[in-house]
Amino acid sequence: MSDFYSLLGVRRDASADEIKKAYRKRARELHPDANPDDPGAEEQFKELSRAYEVLSDPDLRARYDRFGEAGLSGGGQAGGDPFGGGLGDIFEAFFGGSGFSTRGASGPPRGQDLEVTALVDLAGVLTGTQASVSVDSAVRCDDCNGTGAGAGTSPVRCVDCEGTGQVRRVRQSLLGQMMTTGPCGRCGGIGQVVMTPCSACAGEGRRLSRESFTVDVPAGIKSGQTLRLSGRGAVGPRGGAAGDLYVHVRVAPHARFTRDEDDLVTELPISFAQAALGMHTTLETLDGDIDLVVPAGTQHGQEFVARGRGLPHLNGRGRGHLRVLVRVVVPEDLTEEQETLLRRLAEISGEEVAPADKGLFSRIKSAFS
Fold first, then answer.
1. Of the residues 20, 67, 125, 322, which has the fewest C-beta atoms closer than 10 A?
2. What predicted TM-score, i.e. pTM, was given to this entire model?
3. Are 26 and 48 in contact (CB under 8 A)?
4. Domain 258-362 CATH class label
């Protein structure tokens, strides 16, 4: 599989104008008319034209940069037309009409790639998990075994392209007279025509179905990452190969832990007395309890780290860390005894505090709000 940027001889960050200029130059060099003795010239020119078609379109280029050529067979939307058209009004209304399908020189087109989102929890990210997803797709019609032909009949060879699925045309362009090869309009590039369509699928060789899959989600995966299930997309019409299913993973928020790369971060609320005198607590984690000793004199915002108790590194060894941030909680309502003890502590420490007379204190105006 050739790299489109290499075919045009441009960098991956080339501008649209640079791509256009490179294509014109390479087209003059590779045009079949300029290489009559080279049997591979036509195929090279077709590859060059395909590369320019993709890289000159911002949307196609973005998909190619992300997924390679596999991404060009997808419509980019989870609800896009997974069949590439041709199933009639019901399919167009259900799936829409955008997207691309790919095929060889002849034969049934490949089915559309599909997209779906899988929701997993943080515990599943720690250990790896399985997620169930469902997607509306196209599957082979059992009545005609995917041929599209009615009972007792078979598809026949197309007379326009003589079964090749391709027709040649001569047209004028900026480069002069050019011969192009494209899909046959009569048979749609398949090379065969259905004379008596299957009544169950209207000659498409496929039908609508709600399909469910179980996806293996690896440990350490992050929200926004995508898993590819090869051959689990929509099947093509009349025996065409199935596209791929792209599963976009979303990690659900956790009640106590947040994620920082592969580190797990949580807060530990403690009182002023616990911070000043120290304490011991048992911290519940995603994979068991651990002891945490808070030494005397711990400050608000201080961090304690349990190394190797975070999330696994995706496709690598080791784990991130568990980080515990101390949050000193100041009580808002004090009992009379608590207030007396705190005032005594402030007096011993020589600290300035609000007077016991709340009315007097409330009449003092502050410059801050």
1. 20
2. 0.62
3. yes
4. mainly beta
